Every structure is written in C-alpha cells, then in structure tokens.
Amino acid sequence: MLNLISQKISGKFVLPLVEGGKGVSISNGETCGAWAANDAVGTFSAVNADSYDEAGNVIPQIYHGKTREERRRELIEYAVNGGIAQAKIARERSNGRGRIHMNALWEMGGSQEIITRILEGAKDCIHGVVCGAGMPYELSEIAAKFKVFYYPIVSSDRAFSALFRRSFKKCVEFLGGVVYEDPWLAGGHNGLSNAESPTNPMNPYLRLVNLRKVMNSFNLKYLPIIIAGSVWWLSEWADYINNDELGNVAFQFGTRPILTTECPVAKAWQPKFMALKRGDVKLTRLSPTGFYSSAINNEMLADLIARQERQAPIVEQSDLKVSVFGNEVCLDESFREKVSFWTAQGFSAAMLTPDKTVVFVTPEQSVSILQSQRNCCCCLSACRFSSWCQTKGSTGRIPDPRSFCIQRSLQEVAHGGNLDENLLFAGHSAYRFAEDPFYANNYIPTTKELIERIQTGY
How large is the greatest C-alpha to C-alpha distance in the chain, in angstroms? Predict the structure, then answer.
C-alpha cells in the first residue's frame, strides 16, 4: 500500500483521491456518492445532469421552445433540476462520509445561474464546486455566498495567478485547492493555450512546481494541488507524493472510474474502451467551444477531422465557382482538382465557414448540420457551431459547419446512443483498460474495489 496521507479537503480529512467530473450524465449522484462513501471525494457533473419523474425514470431533455431564448430557459431548468437531483442522490449514497463536489463548465450556457440555483436547492448536500473550461472569476463569490469550497481547474501557473489576483484573493477562506489538469493528456476540454503546441507536451512536474511557487507567493502553501490528466497507477506518481517542492497533493481520476459498476454507462461503453490502443484518443480543436479537447477517434471524430481537409479558400474573382445555397462563390483556382475529387466522392454540398472558406459535405450532412444549428438550445455561453452568444444573442460570425452540436451528441452517447457516431470524451490513458490486469476478462469493479486497488499503487 502507498503511504497516502489524508488531506483536509472541503473541511474534512479524506483520502487524497478525487473522482473527476464527467458530463453529460457520466459522473452522477451514484458514482459521486460511492466515492464519498469510501472516504474519498466524489464528483457529480452539473452539465445537463439527469432528473427523474415520479417513477424514477430519466426525464428526456426535449426542447419545445420556438426561439433560442425559450430553449435556453428550458435548458437551464433541466440543468438545475438535474443538478439538485444528483446532489441529493450523492448525499444519500455517501452515508455521511467523504466529500461531495459538483463539477461545472464555466462556459456552459447560464453557468452562474445554474451553479447558484443548484447550491440553493441542494443545501447541505454539496461541499465543493469544481469549475474549468474558461476563467471562472465569479466562482469564488458564488461559493462564498453558500459557504462551500471552490476549486478552479487550471493548466498553468499563469492562469491561476490571473484568477487569484483579479478575484479569488477576495474569498480566500473558501478556496479549497487547485486542480491542475494536464492539457495534453486529460480527457474532455483542455486548457491548452495558444502559446503551447498540441504536439509538444511539457513535463507536468515542472509545471506543478511553478504552480506551487505561485500559490506559495499568495500564502496558499497549505492548499492541496489536485493532479489530473492520465493518472492511472499511483506507483507512477510516487515521486510526487510527500514531495517538498510540490507540497500537499491529491490525485484525480477521470477516465478510470468510467468502468465501475456505479457508472451508468459502464456496460455499454466497456467493449469500446477495452478495444482501445495507444493513440486512439485524439487532441483536437473541433469543439464548438473553441477549446482543445480529447476524445476517442471514432467515426464521428474521423469525419470532422476529414471535413477540415475538404475546404477551399474564397477569393474575389475566379473561374472556379460553386453554389452555396443559391449564391455563387468564387474559390481559389488551385483547388479545382480537389473540388472535383470531393464532389465525385459525394461531398457535393458547399457550406460557408467563418474563415472565408467553403467546406464540402454530403447533401445529407448539409441538411443535418442546418437542422442542428436551427435547434440550438444555447448550451454554451458562446458556440461557434450555431453562432449563439448568451450576452449578445449572436457571436456575429457565420455558424461553423466544421463543428457540431455538442449538447445533442453528449446526451445521445450517455443515453444509449451509437458510440461511433457521437462524441466520446476520454483521457489519453484510456488504452490502459486493455493492458491493466485489474480489468482482465472484462471485469468491471465496484467503486469500493477501485479505490482499494488505487491505494495499492496499481
């Protein structure tokens, strides 16, 4: 067994083991409660969380509003009701042990209202709020209002310094720790900056040391850094434990808890995860958020990647012309051979992008893309796929057909949808399910068994 010293997290000494929050509906009250019940930190996702009818059935998130604003209000109500439901389930399953955290994307549509109303409606159920995908400057004030701890997710010391100087220094009392998420290896949306190369990963140890130095400069030496991103066997992180340069650390597990009996998608997703090989998880910038993200390279992702290649620049004058919804557009003449090839393959529908190019898709894809854009339910604060912006109503840019509706895809894949035709977020260590003897013969452990296993170092 590793010498894991209990850490004070959200006001209570618990194992320094944290469940990573996974939306939509993957990390829920059942998984969160199970982690807490085993004296660790459980996390449920507040991103499009499931709510239930009187019979205990999941309420489908169907939108009836005719306008985007009407659908936005529906989405917020679904999110609030789902978050409260999952928080209460987590509290019941925890048996009063461990800690219960809520994970939220700051850039999700209505994030401040959703977080606030969940904390109001789930009073005494939630001990901490974890937030990333953006710069959550107002997070500290919301958490302090309800006397719960807050945990920003950052990928660099610069990001944390900016957050602390501008906002967090006013509410230090409820800053529970900092989640360092490796931007090259973590699953889901990552905090890779424009100055960093997606193909040139940096040493996490050096970045963590820099983060600790910044935290120490703000007199935060006592706060834990929660290390996230491709954490699998703690034996591989032994040098990070009881390390004077890093100070107090805890470890977050995001991908590995997917295959536990409490996880609602474990059985459906197991064959896919057990078949993964090294390199099957791709880091791309295809998300409608504009952030980098890591997901399994399935049919959907492969199609989006290929779609990036099937585009030609628009020019003022050229003999190469295509019709875009009845309007003639001139394309760079040097793309004539490629356009002919794409069209011959069936990608005969041309669609404008916001970058003065035309992308070629099938007629069926064009219809589907337009319908998805019209059905936008405003799940993000700003969406490049639909051009929605919650502060202005529109980003002012052309909707981007090279992206996709992330809310619809994540809802589908979490509720029985095709695993090849929808987005499947995962960390870059997901291939290790097939190599780890703990999962031999397609074994799915309980959360209790997983936490016990993690404490052995493997």
Answer: 72
Cβ–Cβ contacts within 10 Å for residue 315, how many? 14
CA 254/CA 295 separation, integer angstroms:
13
Each domain of the chain, given as residue ranges in start order, spans 7-266+436-455, 299-414
Class (C level, CATH) for 7-266+436-455 = alpha beta
Interhelix angle 68-94/111-121, nearest 10 degrees: 40
Q: What is the pLDDT of residue 131?
A: 96
pLDDT at site 270 = 98
Work out the pLDDT band at 147, boundaries 50, 70, 90. Answer: very high
Return the closest-CA partner of residue 425 out of 283, 304, 306, 303. 283
- Residue 58, preceding peptide bond in cis (omega within 30° of 0): no
- The Cα 253–Cα 294 span in angstroms is 15
Encode pLDDT of 223-241 as tens digits.
Answer: 999 999 999 999 999 999 9
Q: What is the mean pLDDT of residues 391-416?
A: 96
Q: Is the pLDDT of residue 268 over 90?
A: yes
Residues 6+ apart with CB under 8 A from 179: 130, 132, 151, 152, 153, 154, 225, 226, 228, 252
* pTM value surpassing 0.85: yes
209 token code pair: 């040391």
Q: Which residues contact 199 (CB under 8 A, 6 or more apart)?
A: none
